[in-house]
Amino acid sequence: AFNxxxxxxxxxxxxxxxxxxxxxxxxxxxxxxxxxxxxVIVIVDNxxxxxxxxxxxxxxxxxNKTKSTKHPITEAVKGMGVKWLRHVDRTYDVTKxxxxxxxxxxxxxxxxxxxxxxxxxxxxxxxxxxxxxxxxIKGGTRVVKPKxxxxxxxxxxxxxxxxxxxxxxxxxxSTDDPLRDDPVAHIDQxxxxxxxxxxxxxxAVLCPSFYxxxxxxxxxxxxxxxxxxxRATISLLQRRRESRRLTFADA
Length: 251
Description:
- The chain folds into two domains: 5-120, 3-Layer(aba) Sandwich (Rossmann fold); 123-243, no CATH class.
- It is 37% helix and 18% strand.
- The chain contains seven helices and eight strands.
- A four-stranded parallel sheet has the order 1-2-4-3, with helices on both faces. The chain has a two-stranded antiparallel sheet with strand order 5-8. Strands 6-7 form a two-stranded antiparallel sheet.
- The longest helix has 23 residues, at 221-243.
- Mean pLDDT is 84; it is low at 1-5.
């Protein structure tokens, strides 16, 4: 798709934010501007030098007592003379990323096309947020944590979600349905609620089987009442559906 005639066979290259500050600003961006390269450069901005342990770099968004941070990559790229520049501040928005890449590959503007794709490294984010969330829960504060799941009755078992997202929390699960041979997709307890699986499925128009559930810690009495009402309603509907399900007698 990227090598279609409309895209004029533009190349796509990727550089991480750590590599960008190490030598990519001059050897990649500067070289592309100087040589009037017509390709697409995607700078993966995850706020840290994630490959070497999550150290802060110039574009890190956190404050640092001994280092100078919060220098946007976009400003450095503009300073090198790049005219076509796009910034996607949430790369989990797969549809927006697709549209931005398509625009870069099909625009008539000459010169390098640079996309700064920014989203915090999920591993570092969990390291930063998990202690704070655990402390809040232990202190009795109401905390809502998102979780994603797959509806087994809707999933067809084509596993396209796994091939596209690569999420380590996605696996397969066998069903008890004798009419279905393929295992369905399953999200295990390691899910951190980033939402990428659902975003991929939605953007690719793959399936409607993904759902989001908010896990509420330390709920109020009102929220407990609502939860009880929801469970009763869902249980009623499930029993009604189960009573209409086709069953097979033992031979």
